[in-house]
Amino acid sequence: MKTIGIIGAGSMGGAIARGLLETGYVRPGDLAVCDPKPEILQAIQSEWPAVTCVTSADALCELANTVILAVKPYLVAEVIDQCGDSLTDHAVISIAAGVTVTRLHELLDPLKARVLRVMPNTPALVGEGMTALCSETTLTSEELTFARGVFDALGKTVMMPERLFDGVIAVSGSSPAYVYMLIEAMADAGVREGIPWADACRMAAQSVLGSALMVLNTGTHPAALRNAVCSPAGTTIEAVAALEEHGFRNAVMEAMHLCAEKSREMGKETRNRRR
């Protein structure tokens, strides 16, 4: 039996697979990956020949006792249906946004499969992911310890009740996209000032990374850290004033609110959908 299998090796599933292998938490010979696109599987096997790659979800479930569902939310029910009895008595970890624990139980309880809902993000690929694990889980304590270890190997983890998961998706699941937009805008501003784009992008990205580490490592409120950079009548306060004038914080908060609302809508859709 393989230790773990991943159904769906796209953006997030691929990040999890590569993160597990890069960190050594799972040996290549103990990982099975399923994806309908042969080129994705070929790319994985070219780096790690010992990884078992299949195009059939039920074949993967025959190999793995812990299965990560890394497919689009609308495909979850279809994939579980394809797996059929091969998922019986498995530990199933779902990363599908909006697919609730209740919905997962509806789909998996007939197979006596145990369930954990998680919400990771793509920085898992570089070992700096942020993953929320749902505290309403039916995994055994041993399985939960292993599952948390999977995502600890990819960054940081936190246990959260499901009622907060729509907010989790806004704050960490989708947020790398916002940060990339910020870095791009900062780099473009550097180019406007005459800095070569590659240098401007590296400077912007490193500044974001360093600022994030300041928050994490010092435990200081972000507002206090911001104030420490703002000298009276200086350059930084001019930039901060412009951001405030253009509604920077409100734009971020509204965008994340809409992200959470979309997650709530998706949850309602999956609850109303039946096989």
Report on the structure:
Helix content is 55%, strand content 13%. With 275 residues, the protein is an alpha/beta fold. The chain has 2 domains: 4-161, NAD(P)-binding Rossmann-like Domain (Rossmann fold), CATH 3.40.50.720; 173-263, Orthogonal Bundle (ProC C-terminal domain-like fold), CATH 1.10.3730. Strands 3-2-1-4-5-6-7-8 form an 8-stranded mixed β-sheet, sandwiched between helices. Helix 6 links the parallel strand 7 and strand 8 (155-160).
- Rg is 21 Å
**Helix-strand topology string:** EHEHEHEHEHEEHEHHHHHH
**CATH architecture assignment name of the largest domain:** 3-Layer(aba) Sandwich
- CATH domain fold name of the largest domain: Rossmann fold
Strand order of the largest sheet: 3-2-1-4-5-6-7-8
Question: Distance N terminus to C terminus?
Answer: 29 Å
- Write the CATH homologous superfamily of the largest domain: NAD(P)-binding Rossmann-like Domain
SSE layout and pairings?
Layout: E1 4-7, H1 11-23, E2 31-34, H2 38-47, E3 52-54, H3 57-63, E4 66-69, H4 76-83, E5 91-94, H5 101-108, E6 114-119, E7 129-134, H6 141-152, E8 155-160, H7 165-173, H8 175-192, H9 197-218, H10 222-229, H11 235-245, H12 248-272
Parallel strand pairs: 1-2, 1-4, 2-3, 4-5, 5-6, 7-8
Antiparallel strand pairs: 6-7
